[in-house]
């Protein structure tokens, strides 16, 4: 009887163990993800994966940021280069305008100086033309003084005034045109008569009837002359 009782108890214990094992298997098969034991190694691997993912994401963001900064820098330099090109073009236009204005001003200055010179010479010629008859009268008056009176105070005074007048005219650029003994030149001489002469050849001026004058390089009055025929 005792053995029979022990056998029954052993059977009961085996049955309970089988049921407990079956329950554990059901739990493991049905809810493995929920009731599975998490080991430290699993936690370490999971943390490393998350850190690697975060590092990769941060690296990608850094690369994108650097690329954006690089593109922004290129855009800035492109705008700067374009602005410099526009400024250079404006500077070139202003320099060209300044050169043109300087050239125009230089031409204006030269033209003005030439006009002033011409006006001055025209005015001077007009005054000289009015003075020349006075010079002619001085010469005629001195030529009519008798030989015995040329040493008088009056004659010497007239001669001194005449010389002073001619000196002032010479300092202004007024000079008499050479005539007697020179070849006739229509640019300086005006032939009013022809004469016979044994002293001069044909075409040479033998007499000067009215003295001619030049102001610098311009003829103020032609010489009135007689040319040998």
From TrEMBL:
InterPro entries the UniProt entry points to: GrpE, GrpE_CC, GrpE_head
Skewed-composition ranges (Acidic residues): 52-70
SUPFAM superfamilies hit by this protein: Coiled-coil domain of nucleotide exchange factor GrpE, Head domain of nucleotide exchange factor GrpE
GO molecular function list: adenyl-nucleotide exchange factor activity; protein homodimerization activity; protein-folding chaperone binding; unfolded protein binding
Tree of life domain: Bacteria
GO biological process terms on file: protein folding
Keyword annotations of the record: Chaperone, Coiled coil, Cytoplasm, Stress response
UniProt KW Coiled coil keyword: yes
Pfam families linked to this entry: GrpE
Sections of the chain in a coiled coil: 77-111
Role according to the record: Participates actively in the response to hyperosmotic and heat shock by preventing the aggregation of stress-denatured proteins, in association with DnaK and GrpE. It is the nucleotide exchange factor for DnaK and may function as a thermosensor. Unfolded proteins bind initially to DnaJ; upon interaction with the DnaJ-bound protein, DnaK hydrolyzes its bound ATP, resulting in the formation of a stable complex. GrpE releases ADP from DnaK; ATP binding to DnaK triggers the release of the substrate protein, thus completing the reaction cycle.
Family: Belongs to the GrpE family.
Name this protein carries in UniProt: Protein GrpE
Gene, per the UniProt record: grpE
């Amino acid at each position: 009887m005792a053995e029979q009782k022990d056998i029954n108890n052993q059977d009961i214990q085996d049955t309970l163990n089988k049921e407990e094992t079956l329950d554990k298997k059901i739990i493991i098969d049905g809810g493995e993800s929920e009731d599975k034991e998490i080991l430290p190694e699993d936690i370490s691997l999971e943390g490393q994966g998350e850190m690697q993912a975060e590092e990769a994401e941060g690296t990608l963001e850094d690369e994108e940021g650097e690329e954006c900064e690089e593109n922004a820098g290129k855009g800035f330099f492109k705008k700067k280069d374009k602005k410099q090109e526009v400024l250079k073009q404006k500077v070139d236009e202003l320099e060209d305008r300044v050169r043109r204005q300087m050239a125009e001003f230089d031409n204006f200055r030269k033209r003005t100086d030439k006009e002033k010179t011409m006006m001055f010479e025209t005015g001077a010629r007009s005054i000289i033309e009015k003075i020349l008859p006075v010079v002619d009268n001085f010469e005629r008056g001195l030529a009519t003084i008798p030989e015995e009176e040329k040493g008088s105070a009056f004659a010497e005074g007239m001669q001194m005034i005449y010389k002073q007048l001619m000196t002032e005219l010479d300092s202004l650029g007024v000079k008499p045109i050479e005539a007697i003994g020179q070849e006739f030149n229509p640019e300086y001489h005006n032939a009013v008569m022809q004469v016979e002469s044994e002293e001069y050849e044909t075409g040479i001026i033998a007499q000067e009837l009215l003295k001619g004058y030049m102001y610098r390089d311009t003829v103020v009055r032609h010489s009135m002359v007689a040319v040998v025929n």
